[in-house]
Amino acid sequence: MNKHFFGDTTVLLGRSVKHVTRSMDTIVTTAMMPVAMMLMFVYVFGGAIDTGTDSYVNYLLPGILLITVASGVAYTALRLFTDMKSGIFERFQSLPIARSGVLWAHVLTSLVANLVSLVIVIGVALVMGFRSGAGLGTWLAVAGILLLFTLALTWLAVIPGLSAKSVDGAGAFSYPLIFLPFLSSAFVPTATMPGPVRAFAEHQPVTSIVNALRALLAGQPVGTDIWTALAWCAGLLAVAYLFATITYRRKIA
What we know:
With 253 residues, the chain is an all-alpha fold. Helix content is 77%, strand content 0%. The protein contains eleven helices and no strands. It has helices at residues 5-21, 25-45, 56-86, 88-93, 99-127, 136-163, 167-172, 174-179, 195-202, 205-218, 225-252. Helix 2 packs antiparallel against helix 3, helix 3 runs antiparallel to helix 5 (99-127) and helix 6 (136-163) runs parallel beside helix 11 (225-252). The model has no long low-confidence stretch (mean pLDDT 87).
């Protein structure tokens, strides 16, 4: 690792964050879609959905948080794509800075932007009646899972951000990620789904992550869901990081 890695990454992080603060509409837009979905499902469909719980917003929030992250990382891909096409990567390569710092700056910016969006969504959920008896340690566990999930999706977003041929292609990769929670336990219990859909829903990563977050926030035993969720997040992170770094090296070679 370059001895100036941390200093270079910090400077480049400041540059990326400054771009985000000059375009706060991206964070607001990222948070608005999940908030709109939460409002619609709670106040329009919530009364017709039997989840076996007293509060549908309590049941729904974990899935909405994952959708928020999936929406947010789309902008990471777009910001990377814009930098690639503007030629700024070539200019950075001509400078005596850590090359990996450019990529890490975008990844850390994604974490910051998604954190802001998640706080906005949780704030709206509280206004809508979301309540949790979770203590500080449990909230830290929830934050840890969301951090790992965000890191995994961010490194996944790096791949299309570096390799897409068009700006539409860079952002389109997030559509399946946003759709995946609909085929999980995020909105309704999987027991109400028909056989093949239920089998897929119960064995895809979003269900175990949503179940783990929901149990933690409700103060209930998490069982094996938390280990399954951590395994999915860590596995996805490792694979995405590997392919993202390979793609980056090919681009700057």
